[in-house]
Amino acid sequence: MVTRWIDLRSDTVTKPTEAMRSAMAKAEVDDDVLTFDPTGLRLEKEMVRITGKEAALFVPSGTMGNLISVLTHCDVRGSEVILGHNSHIHVYENGGISTIGGVHPRTVINNKDGTMDINMIEAAIRDPAFEICYPTTKLICLENSHCNAGGRCISVEYIDKVGELAKKHGLKLHIDGARIFNASTALGVPVDRLVQAADSVSICLSKGLGAPVGSMIVGSKSFIAKAKILRKTLGGGMRQIGVLCAAALVALQDNVGKLEDDHKKAKTLAEGLDSINGLRVDVAAVETNIVYLDILESSNMTAPKLCKALEGHGILVMEDKPDRVRLVLHHQIFATDVQFTLSCIQQAVNAASDENAASPLGI
Ligand SMILES: Cc1ncc(COP(=O)(O)O)c(C=O)c1O
């Protein structure tokens, strides 16, 4: 019988802590659409301090944060945004920038580390002399840490270079910083320095930070003033948001310091998995809290089989491909959970191998 679930599907699965629930219960609130919610205003002020930008805005989700940011920068239909082919905005956000905003995506191949070749970004910028045919490039988007690259971090030097390129061509730079605190922790670079070159950043409160709901977008005062109108248009203007922002303030205070430990647990898990016969993890690529596990053909194991076997032990992981599984660490996973997960995976792989050996064809 399962007595404790070890949920490694994502860092979005965390439950609010007692401190968060208590802060939510006591939160001072008012109508945020009318800009009067005091706890919301406190959270905005805190985000402004952390990111070094002029203004901040609470939004219901990372997807809405990215959508509002892109649409605010690309305020003319037919504008074009340059972004990674493997970026969250391009792959997982329902193409909202096109379907809702009339913004045209121009993808550049993401390298394995989540960056895009800077020369390729520059080559993707449209020549305004041909505006009779071309969409108008307005924006470049980066993602840090980069989720589909396995949570790898983009360096401040790289971001600065992309920022310079954007400036040179009169473009804006947006960072999908859903996990910017993970990147900041892993790189040892404060968030305000890491995003210095960006005109806007969207930051999730409900991922590694462990708050139950919400994201923030930050940028200049005029950017946030326009973003606030778009938030209302999209139905993201909410009333007593202080209930949610109170939990986020606790998350900022209590959980940012735990990210380093999440990254250590991810590394331990990655090393342990890589040492199991039939499995492979690119350990060097595990820089933050995400681990991609490849299952080798020789193992007689598949991702669905592994997920099912682990579920029997109370461990939840996410199938990425038939031979690939994703495991994500967060503050509600303990070092003992990592060891238990490793022993259950070893057991499942051994069982699959024994099955293979027992097969009459030996295959
Ligand atoms: C890198 C990245 N950006 C944006 C999002 C979207 O956030 P939300 O799920 O809050 O819409 C996610 C969600 O997993 C993400 O990983």
Automatic annotation (TrEMBL):
Pathway: Amino-acid degradation; L-threonine degradation via aldolase pathway; acetaldehyde and glycine from L-threonine: step 1/1. GO terms for cellular component: cytosol. Coiled coil: none annotated. It comes from the Eukaryota. Its EC number is 4.1.2.48. Keywords: Lyase, Pyridoxal phosphate. Its cofactor is pyridoxal 5'-phosphate. It catalyses: L-threonine = acetaldehyde + glycine; L-allo-threonine = acetaldehyde + glycine. GO terms for molecular function: L-allo-threonine aldolase activity. It holds the Pfam family Beta_elim_lyase. The modification N6-(pyridoxal phosphate)lysine is found at residue 207. InterPro entries: ArAA_b-elim_lyase/Thr_aldolase, Low_specificity_L-TA-like, PyrdxlP-dep_Trfase, PyrdxlP-dep_Trfase_major, PyrdxlP-dep_Trfase_small. Residues 7-294 form the Aromatic amino acid beta-eliminating lyase/threonine aldolase domain. One of its GO terms (biological process) is glycine biosynthetic process. Threonine aldolase involved in threonine degradation to glycine. May play a role in the removal of L-allo-threonine. Belongs to the threonine aldolase family. This is low-specificity L-threonine aldolase. It comes from Heracleum sosnowskyi.
